[in-house]
Amino acid sequence: MPEEGMEDNKEGEERPKWNNKAEYLLTCIGFAVGLGNVWRFPYLCQIYGGGAFLIPYLIALVFQGLPLLYLELAIGQRLRMGSIGVWNSISPYLGGVGVASMLVSFCVSLFYNTIVAWVLWYLFNSFQEPLPWSQCPLNHNNTGYVEECVESTPVNYFWYRQTLNITPNMETSGSLQWWMVVSLATAWSIVYICFVRGIETIGKAVYVTATFPYLVLTIFLVRALTLPGAYEGLIYLFTPDWEILKNPQVWLDAATQIFFSLSVAFGGLISFSSYNSQKNNCEKDAVLVGVINSATSIYASIPIFAILGFKAHTNYVTCLNGNILALTNEFDISDMNITVENYEQWFDSLNGTHPSRVSDLKLKTCDLQTFLDQSASGTGLAFIVFTEAVISMPGSQVWAVLFFIMLFSLGLSSMFGNLEGILTPLHDLKLVPKWMPNELFTAIICLLLFLMALIFCLGSGNYWLEIFNSYVGSVPFLIIAFFEIIAVAYIYGIGRFSDDLEFMTGHRPNIFWKVCWLVISPLMLFVVLVAYVAVQAQTPPTYAAWNPDYVNFPNTEVLPYPDWVFAICVLLSSVPVISIPLVAIYRLICCMSGRHSKDSLHNNPNPYANEDYVVELLL
Amino acid sequence: MRCLRMLVRILVLLYLAGAPALAQTLCQPNASNGYRVRISIKTALGNQAYEWNENEMFLFRATMAFAMRRYYKTETYNVDNIIVCNQTRRVSFWFVVISPENPTMLIPKADVEKAVSMSRHRINNAFLLTDRTLEFLGIYPTLAEPVNPDTPPWLIVFGVVIGAVFAGIIALLVSSLLQKRRKEKGMMEDGQDEEDRQMKGVENGINLDGIYNRGFTDDDRFTKL
């Protein structure tokens, strides 16, 4: 039975507490609901047969996501420490899991806040008339538009040249882009101001950052449904293609999506729940957070796809109008006699009477389906596709500002969890000198992260960010989560864990949770991990480079990673997780050498020596 | 005498009758010194589109005469100097400009282009059209100068945001510093009371303060004999 003494910390210092339950829940929801809910889930839904994708997604949520979530919230709340302290308590040999969590949170914070900095850059630029990505700038002597912009599109040019100033390949690093450094400094300053007083200020900030995205999504939903082409986009998104369920790739992507979406294995959720009182029903919290996260994903895809449908419709009409103009000019037909509606009839009659002249015009084939198929995910969706759609909407500045503030709120609330996963373990490891106030320590960590993130402000920064995203933000998490669940289910013991849960929530976990923790979730995690690594190993390590001198510009050039870059990729994947076996070996060595010194103690047993007492408490 | 006068009158009449015919031959599609004009009224104005008729054509010739006057800075050009031909229902037509001094001489293409470019804005506005809907094929519209403000707008927004954030950080740091000082002052005053109580505590023989250390068992006081 757990002793009452576990309520207080060993130093007698009071652990910070949440002001109320709402702040805690909003922080967890804000951490889980991030940019991926808006720009990854709708894309997956679209390419994997619309409504049919929901089936593997919900299955993965119920059997993998919710048990992991419940597990993390429960151990954080019970053991009242950050990730390193928690895993040290469960088993000293598995303390490496906490270290790995912290290292991975560190790496993710680096590139995630850079994305937030990009969002801020676009937000600052949305306060202009006309929007800077709506037209090409003039070249030096004002004779024409910049060639790179004319060959691609103004939106692409603004993203690749005026925002990133991207280099043609990874070997060329380019220089620091000062406007990016400025945006990055703003992003880190805003993160710092929310972290100044720890969860006291975070708890206030999440009232805005966690709720504002829903408001904006609703506004976009109402606006988007009134735009032409919205229904085509929605039908395209949600039309289920049941055949796709036979493809194992779909199940793999659903499992990875739910896993990364819930932000488990960061250590942030453990830290947040450690500030709770122990008598809190974390089962309800876990189910609530998981369900709201998935519901947000589904809710967000509706306005996103309505707007993408509108964009496809606009592109289709523009394409047709180009053809109509060509035909009108060639055959001197009265202005506006050919319209979008009767284009087909006119085309057929003209092609019948003057086929050679019509073919000389080189008319484009305009197909709405092709435009709908041009989907994108990630930064491509937000900074290229969506910005293009916004230009065509009346009142573009308002929609651009709203959209980027929403992305900013989503990114900021996720950054809270990322940074918390670094700060709390460092506090619990007592690596903070006594004389240093918390505010100064947080400032030092933020400054350190800002300086390290300056690599993403170089010309080749986007390529490095993609590497971090694919190699750090994927396999290490799967490994950490797998060890987490094995540690709690088998090493800590499901019986002891059920006792703890009974102490906290008032009732023992039912058979569903036990079966999931013992069998289903570890198995699913293992299968997903192996399959993911296998798929990654099969795809050649290449990246898409933006090279204006490329033959097929504006298509991106597919280049292989240089060897030294590939070595860095492998290091990024393995170094965080290498701490798990390293710490285990270290503890093993310490324990074996420690046993020799302990034998001398046992010769003169002193029942009042505190070390024995401490040993009894932990094991 | 009378015969001479009649001859002169016949010659003048012939000349006057022949002049337009001569002028018509000057205006041909693909003429070397002519330009083709293409007008899309319905595209530009939609519901408020006006119909293209002879009056509108008269206005066009008058505007072109205006453009030539403005370019050469003379007042010799008239509506008659602008010849129009080959009108289609698109609406498109060809036009040439003849010199007011010599009706058989055409103004060169380059000069006409410069005149049109100089007064393009006025010509467009006369017809409520734009560069795209009133096309002079071969004369490219000069690109609009982009509005370049002295300070880029994004810097202004950034300045406001970063100023607010730094002000907030300083405010929060100062307030937490003040809070800590207040706590320390409070604890120092409590510390005085604690010392007094500790003196009394020792007298009673029971330690009331501090954390009860369960590591120590009480049987230490009474040794087993």
From TrEMBL, chain A:
Q: Which InterPro entries match?
A: Na/ntran_symport, Neutral_aa_SLC6, SNS_sf
PROSITE patterns for the chain: NA_NEUROTRAN_SYMP_1, NA_NEUROTRAN_SYMP_3
Question: One biological process GO term for this chain?
Answer: sodium ion transmembrane transport
GO CC terms, sorted: plasma membrane
Under Pfam families, the record lists: SNF
What topology does the record note for this protein and the membrane? Multi-pass membrane protein
> Which subcellular locations apply to this protein?
Membrane
UniProt: Na(+) binding residues? 30, 32-33, 37, 261, 293, 410, 414
Keywords (alphabetical) are: Glycoprotein, Membrane, Metal-binding, Sodium, Symport, Transmembrane, Transmembrane helix, Transport
UniProt entry tagged with the keyword Transcription regulation:
no
Q: Of which family is this protein a member?
A: Belongs to the sodium:neurotransmitter symporter (SNF) (TC 2.A.22) family.
This protein is called: Transporter
What organism does the UniProt record list as the source? Answer: Oncorhynchus kisutch
Automatic annotation (TrEMBL), chain B:
Source organism: Oncorhynchus kisutch (Coho salmon)
Which terms in the GO cellular component ontology are assigned?
extracellular exosome; plasma membrane
Family matches, as PANTHER family: COLLECTRIN (PTHR46884:SF1)
Provide the protein's localization.
Cell membrane
Signal sequence interval, chain numbering? 1-23
Protein name listed in UniProt: Collectrin, amino acid transport regulator
Q: Which GO terms describe its biological process?
A: positive regulation of amino acid transport
Family matches, as InterPro entries:
Collectrin, Collectrin_dom
Its membrane topology is listed as: Single-pass type I membrane protein
Q: Does the keyword Cell membrane apply?
A: yes
Kindly state which keywords UniProt assigns to this record, in alphabetical order.
Answer: Cell membrane, Glycoprotein, Membrane, Phosphoprotein, Signal, Transmembrane, Transmembrane helix
Gene encoding this polypeptide?
A: LOC109898004
Residues in Collectrin-like domain copies: 31-225
Query: Where are the membrane-spanning stretches?
Result: 154-178
* A Pfam family reported for this protein in Swiss-Prot or TrEMBL: Collectrin
Taxonomic classification = Eukaryota, Metazoa, Chordata, Craniata, Vertebrata
Its chief place of residence is membrane
